[in-house]
Design a protein that fits this description.
Layout lengths: L7 H6 L3 H26 L4 H13 L1 H19 L6 H26 L7 H17 L4 H24 L5 H20 L9 H6 L13 H16 L2 H11 L1 H6 L4 H27 L10 H11 L11 H20 L4 H46 L1
Helix pairs in contact: 3-4, 4-15, 5-10, 5-13, 5-14, 5-15, 6-7, 6-8, 6-13, 7-8, 7-13, 10-11, 14-15, 14-16, 15-16
Amino acid sequence: MPEQTTTPSAAGSAIDPRRASSASRDTAGASGDRDARDAARRDPESAAERTLRRRRLLTGRGAIMIYALLGTLLVCALTVPRFASVQTTGFLLLDAIPILMIAMPMALVIITGEIDLSVASTAGLTSAAMGVLWAAGWGIPEIFVVCVLIGIGCGALNGLLVTAIGLPSLAVTIGTLALYRGLALVVIGDNAVADFPPALTSFFTSKIGATGIPTAMIGVAVIIAFFGVLLHFSSFGRTLPAIGFSKEAASFVGVHVGRAKFWMFVATGVVSALVGIYWTLRYSSARSDNATGIELAVIAAVLLGGVSIFGGRGSIPGVVAGVLIISSVSYALRLGGISDVVLNVVTGLLLVGSVVTPSLIAVVREKRRTRRAARDVLAASAADAA
């Protein structure tokens, strides 16, 4: 029989199935790698990072404070008569508005590692100036402009002393606390101006329909949104925790530490001036002692809301929850006939607790981490010995 031969074209067409399967897998793998790289390029945040961020959002200090606020409101509604009412909502929020407003810039100041104790005195000075200017025949728009300028000046002075001269903010603002309150007494003396336009004063105590929510909360919501976006969604705000952690490291990477701190002090001055306007028109009285003592409630609420007293950490939602917790507890105690002395004690305990508790938690976590590391070392040594 003649010998069968295979032509080159026939040999080329006889493909090994195993080789074809391997080539197919290689092609699919390369295509998958390209798809993965393209997906990563389109969405640089991995699934693990998204999961971690979602978990932090639900279990972080801000979320915990929101859960605590809901629990506080529930307990107060079940145990305190008349707490769960529209009237309570209105009066509680009217009392909380000054603390809530000042807490927003105060949170950012503390996150940068500083503090401002002069906010209440700035509000008092603004109130005194407002009363004197109104008695002198000035119009309300002009008075508002002057009050805001006073707030800018007070905040700028604090900022310059801290950033330009390098003085500690605690010492500076203790001094300006007394200075601004003394200036308020010089401006208006022991007098009180109370004949502001009824339409204006009634507006600052009016409610939105039948909800019991004060109309002034609309402006407060704008302030909260502004500082929330500034801290959490702006490049400037993202530098503030870095400054609080280490101003030297922040400066090394190009952050203007002094400039950022200066504008935060100016912000506290402006918002404190707005609080002075609100306080004056809500109570229809301009006095030199208006807003006395609210700086402690503000700082207690900010620290309770998760802002570290050492700087570098904090969130606006947590601070809002901290303010509302303190306001709810205070109003519930007031409804229960508790004296103001006890309210001051409660505020002091919350302030101390908000400072001590994070430190204790950090100590416990560090001890656990050290013990876990020691056990791992012992287990590794035992495995090597075996």
